[in-house]
User: Fold this.
Amino acid sequence: MASRLTLRPLQAADAEAFVAAARRSRQLHRPWLTAPCTAEDFKKHLARFEAPTSYAFVAEIGPTRQLAGALYLTNIVYGAFRSGYLSYCAFVPLHGQGHMKQALAQLVRIAFGKLGLHRIEANIQPGNSASIALVRGCGFVREGYSAAYLKIGGRWRDHERWALVRPAR
Assistant:
């Protein structure tokens, strides 16, 4: 991977590039998720990250700044729990090239460093082998199985629960 990857906060100025990437990637995302494919959907999507308990990032490649994917930490709880939920999506044509693994490693450093989290949890549909390989490759451990966990595409879908706990200090 010769191109440099930058992980940075998602912003309103990303709308056009994000929507175009999401549209190109609809087949890749189906049935796992639905990314915003219109300007209005993007605006609603971005609004979800205004709270201090939710963060959205994009992974962009080199000088072209082409979007390789998006990563999210949401529903963060501080106090004694210090945990948040991870979700993400890769974008065509840069998927499957290791960019998301690099971006997730950067996000983990932010989560355990700047944000002070102790635990990150990812809930993944059992058939999503690429997503499972990504978290496993970044050190996440399968903790369990949740039946009918999230409603995606109009159906309640089962999920495997994967987590990464901050190394003891």
In short: The helical segments are 15-24, 26-29, 39-47, 99-112, 129-137. The CA atoms of residues 36 and 42 lie 5 Å apart. Strands lie at 5-9, 55-61, 66-77, 83-90, 119-124, 141-152, 155-165.
